[in-house]
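for the record, two folds in this file. i put them one after another cuz i was lazy. first one right below, seq on top, structure tokens after. the second one comes after a little note so u can tell where it starts
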Amino acid sequence: MRPKESPRYYTNNFEHLGIAWCCRIIPGSYKRSLSSHEIRLAFAAMKIAIIGSNRGIGLALTKHYSKDHEVYAFCRSKSPELSELSTNKNLKVLDGCDVNSFASLQDTAKKCSGVNFDIFIHVAGIWRTENFDSLNEQTIMEQLHTNALAPILCVKAFENSLGLGSKVGLVTSRMGSIADNDSGGRYGYRMSKAALNAGGKSLSIDLKDQGVAVFLLHPGFVQTDMTEGHGNLTTKESASGIAKIFEQHDISQSGSFFHVNGEELPW
């Protein structure tokens, strides 16, 4: 029975309320009451943070989201491609963000004091090549720091900008799946992404009580500088797939490891 007075009570009669599209944005909303945060997401532009926005997938995500939402694009230095977007009123570019320095991350986060992000995506990462015959301790450690530790420290630095209903996406790789490894090699990259998966899973547990969801995201085999242009997805296609994952999943799936096509991947 419907309560007589409840501003947060909604049935599936969304047409009457003029919000028929809420179900698409908020999974399961036709079955339950909407929180005030969910109502805000449904009717207002979201605030999106993208760490590593100056090229590749990060740049494509910046372009994708800044069409309709307020985007904070973080990078160490602006690329010409990112600078070309400066006329977009929805976009705020914050350079000088070094993901390998916790102090730099903290300083950058202070510039966003009072901003609450609906979606927070960490894309920045590096790729080095090693096999068993050419192990390189330095490049392996570089990848472990940049790909595994830095994303966790980044979320920690921006913790005050995340809250009830926020969604965090850590761009990882299928190469971090132990169960899926049937080709060997790539020691530093594989270990760093496996470590990120482990850290992201812990993060999903630690942030659950705050209402923050965490997803581990494999972007696909994407045509970027990192892959030297090889791949079966464009950056635009990968960005679109990542955005769909955020649209289709909520905190009940927090801690999951998703392929860009929506498939859940094995650890």
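(here's the note) second protein begins now
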Amino acid sequence: MTSKTLSPPSIGSATLRADGAAKVSGTEKYALDLYSEGGLWAGVKRAGVPHARLKGIFTESACKVPGVRSIITHADIKGENRQGVVQKDQPVLVDDIIRHRGDAVALVVAESLSSLESALGLVTIDFEPLPGIFDIDSALLIEPELLIRENAEGKVISIVAKTVKGDVIGHSSLYNSAPCKNVFEGGAGLVHTAYRGGKGVLTQMVIHGFKATITSGVEQVFGETVSNHPFSQKLSHGQGFVTRAMEINLMPADAYAKEESAKSRVTTLMDFRTLVSSPCDVYVPKAYDEIFSIFYKDMDDDRRFLPSDETLPASQSTKCSTTIFDFAQVARLSIEETGDDFMEVISKEEEKLISQGIRVIQIWLSTGVPYVGEAVDILRKSSYFFCGVLPRWFDNDGLLMERIFDAPDWDAMVLHLDRAKELAQIIRSDWERAEGL
């Protein structure tokens, strides 16, 4: 496909799609158009069923098709057969549970397109149909083997609520979603409808879950509490968590349609609590020198604050890992290394995300490097604004910057604590600065 390198001034401004003219005129080249003589063709056999337990894959007939070079299933994968955005829990090639019709069960490689298509049609599977999952209550009952395995591997810490008879009525979890493997997020709480409405099941799961992390090797815990009602904020504060950042416009209003608690995108608070002390140096960007201490107020660990006064190094390239949440129209960019090509890398990534309809772009930067300030200055000139600090995010601390494409409904935020109100006002002020560019 054609590409175009953006010049630095284009960051933060509307640009034409680099491949737009070629696509609408029909001259764009796609992968299928780029076949070279002697090349091989590859295709994926999809499950074709929405929910089932895989019992067998049959490739004998497909292997006999002239021109077929190889057929690969999960049994041929010698390494890790898992990938994923937040947790690597999705099979590359299905080895147990089929979760949607498009799940990949086999990869076929052939010498020609006709051989490939013939072979794909001859790969068959044996499966046990499983019922569809259409609500939260049903979701509580599925795939216990997966939960057991991921708990054993330390990827998830499950908190299960049961009746005295042993019936499961709720499940909550803690899981690693930050770049640092010792930082876990608490969330994904589900309670059976018959036990909701002031019975305290979720509250007790949260309390028990926090106690469980103390003996599990987790060193920092955080949670995202919503701003459209105060219950989760009160629960978090009651367990000693402190708000350090806010994710402005994180969730679409549609996510709260059933309870009718939001008319516009919903902001979440990021609340942190330290379990194991890990003192570190924090380099403070000059642009936020006056407000950093407010976000670190009552920090439950030692920090040494230093000025960030170095320039971006030319000796290394910027490394950026992007996670897209399509349903929420949110993209998260984790900056693993920052070089003097930072502006160019972010500009290219931003252009791509905007073309995909992303409404919120988040950027995580490490404050453990003395040149973070210059990266912040670049983002500030491109309509990004400061949203808070992230303790232990990269093992050392981080900070969050956002660019959003819808005005937040600041007045609709229901904030329980004065601290949250103070942080919201600081963040709003920086958003207004960014909007005025």
